[in-house]
Structures are given as C-alpha cells and as structure tokens.
Write a structure and sequence with these properties.
By secondary structure, this protein is of the alpha+beta class. 29% of the residues lie in helices and 23% in strands. It binds flavin-adenine dinucleotide (FAD).
Length: 446
C-alpha cells in the first residue's frame, strides 16, 4: 500500500484518569459504572453522540429477550439494572418476563446513570491510537472536533466491540476471514402500522426459534419467535427483490402509536467491520435493502399497507469482528456444559444466538464467565469488555449477547478499580477481592 510520512508531533493531554473506558455499548457502560461505583475516577469516551452502543445506535432494545421461561437463570448486576431503570423511567415495554428498552429514551437513561455514578462523560471522541511505555498501556490518542488529544490513564478498558485499543496496543487478536464472520445489519423502524391486523397475521403464521437456527434443539421448536420471512419471499418471487438478497426479519417491540421501532431484517455477509470501505459499502447497500424491505412489507405483510419508514439506525450493527486472545479462551464446551471457574466474574444462562445456532436458556442451566477472557495477552494496564472478549466462535454466540457484555463489562470495571486500590496489575489482581466487590454490586458469581 502506498504510504505517506507524517511529521512527529506533540499531542496535548486533554484528561488524566484512573480508569478510562473506550466505547459505551452494554460492555463499556457496565465497565464504567462498575469502576466508578468501586470508587475509581472513571472517564467514558465514545465516538458517537450518545452512550449505549448497539442499543442506541442500532435501536436494539431486546437486552434479555431470551428470558422466556421461569427457569431461566440470569446474571443480575448492571444488565438487569438497565432493564429496571428503564422501566422506572418509562423507557421500556414489558414483554413476557423481560423489558424491551425504548432505545431513544435509553439515550437519556444512560446519561442519567453516567451522571449519577460521577463518571466523566466524553462524547464525539474517537480513539485512534495508544500511548505505550514498552508493553504497558499509559493512555490513548483521540481525534475529535477539538483536534488530536491524548488521555492518560492508569487502567484502560477496551469496550469498542472491535478490540480497537487492544489491537493498536499490540495485543494478539484474531479475526475470522470475513466470509465466515456473522452478517452485519442496517436496522429500521416503521410507523403507521395497523397492529391488530399485523398480529392476527403473525398468530396465523407463527414462527419458532427453530425456524432460524440451523443448530437448535427440540425445545426451541416450541418457543415463539418474531422471525418473519414470507413477505420478503413473496417480493422475491414477484421479481421485486433480487433472489440472492437475504431478508428475514425479527421485531422486538411495538407502540400504541402503531410503530414497530426496530425491524432487524437486513443481513449482509462478507463484511469486515474493521474495514472502512466495507462499512461504507454495507451502510449504502443496507439502505437500498431497507427500501426493498419496506416496500415488501407494505405490499405483502397485513397491517403494513399504510406504514411508512420511520427511522434507519444511526449506524449499521456488527455482530462479530476482531477478538482478543486472552489469558483464557472461552469454548463451546464451556458454554454448553455449565463450566465453572475459580475466577468467575458472573454467570450467563446457556443461551446461544449467532452463527445460525439458536439455543434458548429455558432449562436453568448456566455457565460462569471467567475473568481471564477479559485479560489480553502481552499488554499491561488493559482489560477488554463486551463482544471482543476471548473465546471461540460458538462461545461468541453467548458472549456477544448484551447481557453477557454487561457481565464482562462490570467484571472488568471492578477488576480495574480493585487492581488500582491494591497497587497490582490487572493480570495479578486478587480475584477473590474482585468477586467480593462484584457481589456487593449485586452480581451473581456462582
Ligand atoms: C442487528 C443486531 C441485533 C442484535 N440483537 C441482539 C439482541 O436482540 N439481544 C442481544 O442481547 N444482543 C443482540 N445483538 C448483539 C449485541 O447488540 C452486541 O453484541 C453488543 O451490543 C456488543 O456490546 P459491546 O459493548 O461489546 O459493543 P457495542 O454495543 O458495539 O458498543 C461499542 C461502542 O464503542 C464505540 N466505539 C467503537 N470504536 C470506538 C473507538 N475507536 N473510539 C471510541 N468509541 C468507539 C461504538 O460507537 C459503540 O458505542 C445484536 C447485534 C446486532 C448488530
């Protein structure tokens, strides 16, 4: 690749903090809240204009949609707090045993939680480089409307989803070939729907979880799913949508105003979410597909005849990209065999959704989440939270779930704070102390 040489420059330090969290999705928000509540001076830096990551940028409010059975064992901690807090603030819809977050109002819910915890908020700020002292991370370099500035920190938590910080710091990472990565999605919402007519249609044509998971069990065949493909197939048969375009929709919630705020219908493969050319192509191709999808719904989905496109997500959503190689790699075997770990920072039900595997946690089975999947190899002062934690492809279908991202986030945040209190590295932190602090924060460890 052709290269230019940039002149050496001095970069102003805009802030210094104990714990710096980069990225504010479920993983980053939980990390910042966990660290701040443990008493660490915490700064949360986000590249977009609101906190929440996929929740607020891609309009995905179904943080615990898997909780369909009374037997489902859940994590507790900040993820459940998101649901409870949103409910109290009129920012969610109760469906079955879970809350679907109102992803617009959740922007404000997140602001309030950040404010109350005393976290220093920083929006519109992209992290573009790292400040290293040998193998030790001392901070990051950012770009924003204020220019290129550094933030120094005693501990950094990478919650970018793509392990941007870990990768730039030289921590070993892995990324599958892009044709093997999970599809990215451009989500959209519609208004003007006759919900009565739509639900009558859904009830006459029910779908189950087993309809979309190539790998799912007998119990999944009895679990209702919002999976809907018929209107798109009809449009394809009529020659209105190219036959090779993957269109299959899930919807999470609805409002009295005749809206379905989030339709997750556009699935585009062969996209590397760490490649800006791919991102550009997918955003534009995604919007083209949204137009096809809305037209198909209006024509072939009862209740949608007078509907209109209401929103397109502020960003496409990526499900899988770069992951760190950690002190431990979580495996398919761990997730499906109720793994127990001495360094547990929380639990997550036996729930897999991704890479065409659909296993619902209706049995009461769960695994423990080990601290070591948040600890990258070779780089000090750095932890990772959210979907880029260490693990194999099948375990990713569990750890990428928003609730599990809050488990690794809160665990990493508290561990960063405890390591500072005790003056030890993140790698050498006293896990029993971390577990104690997490229990105090309402996390279930075993
Ligand atoms: C379309 C779609 C539907 C999904 N549906 C569900 C569902 O129903 N239930 C569920 O549990 N999970 C679902 N998931 C998965 C889940 O939403 C994600 O895996 C989860 O949000 C990952 O959380 P995270 O905190 O790791 O990253 P993200 O939520 O992606 O947040 C990362 C944050 O970091 C910021 N960031 C990134 N790079 C930088 C940088 N260099 N500098 C500064 N900030 C940066 C981003 O702007 C973002 O705010 C879905 C995912 C997608 C894409």
């Amino acid at each position: 690749m052709k290269q230019i040489e940039e002149p050496a420059r001095r970069t102003p330090v805009m802030a210094e903090t104990d714990v710096l969290v980069i990225g504010s999705g479920p993983g980053g928000l939980a990390a910042a809240l966990g660290a701040a509540r443990q008493g660490a001076k915490t700064l949360l830096a986000e590249r977009f204009g609101c906190f929440g990551g996929v929740i607020t940028q891609v309009m995905v409010g179904t943080i615990a949609w898997y909780r369909t059975s009374e037997k489902t064992v859940d994590a507790g901690g900040i993820g459940v707090e998101f649901e409870e807090r949103a409910k109290r603030m009129g920012a969610s819809q109760t469906i079955n045993r879970y809350e679907v977050l109102d992803t617009e109002k959740f922007k404000y819910v997140a602001d309030e939680m950040v404010r109350e915890a005393g976290i220093v908020p920083l929006l519109h700020t992209s992290t573009v480089d790292v400040v290293m002292d040998g193998r030790t991370l001392r901070g990051v370099v950012t770009e924003s409307k204020s220019g290129r500035q550094a933030i120094l920190a005693k501990r950094v938590i990478d919650a970018t989803g793509d392990a941007d910080v870990a990768f730039r710091a030289g921590a070993p990472c892995r990324k599958d070939p892009k044709h093997e990565l999970e599809a990215v999605s451009v989500n959209f919402g519609c208004s003007g729907i006759d919900l009565r007519a739509f639900f009558e249609y859904i009830l006459k044509n029910p779908s189950s979880i087993a309809d979309w998971g190539d790998r799912s069990g007998a119990k999944e065949a009895h679990e209702f799913s919002t999976y809907m493909v018929e209107p798109f197939d009809k449009a394809k048969r009529a020659g209105e949508i190219p036959p090779d375009v993957r269109l299959e929709s899930y919807w999470g919630s609805f409002t009295d105003a005749g809206e379905i705020p989030n339709l997750n219908a556009i699935h585009m493969s062969d996209i590397d979410a760490t490649d800006v050319w791919d991102l550009t192509r997918a955003e534009m191709e995604g919007r083209q597909r949204v137009m096809w999808a809305v037209d198909a719904l209006k024509k072939y989905a009862p209740g949608f005849q007078r509907a209109r496109l209401r929103t397109i997500g502020a960003s496409l959503g990526a499900r899988e990209s770069r992951k760190i190689l950690g002190e431990y790699e979580l495996t398919e075997h761990d997730v499906l065999n109720q793994a127990r770990f001495a360094d547990s920072i929380g639990i997550f039900p036996e729930f897999l959704d991704g890479n065409r595997i659909a296993i619902m946690p209706s049995t009461g089975r769960y695994f423990q989440v080990p601290y070591r999947i948040t600890v990258p190899q070779q780089v000090e002062n750095l932890l990772v939270a959210g979907r880029c934690v260490a693990g194999d492809k099948v375990s990713h279908a569990a750890t990428r779930q928003m609730m599990c991202c809050t488990v690794t986030g809160q665990g990493a945040g508290v561990a960063a704070a405890v390591s500072l209190e005790d003056g030890v590295s993140c790698r050498a932190v006293d896990v029993a102390r971390v577990q104690h602090a997490l229990r105090d924060q309402g996390v279930r460890i075993d």
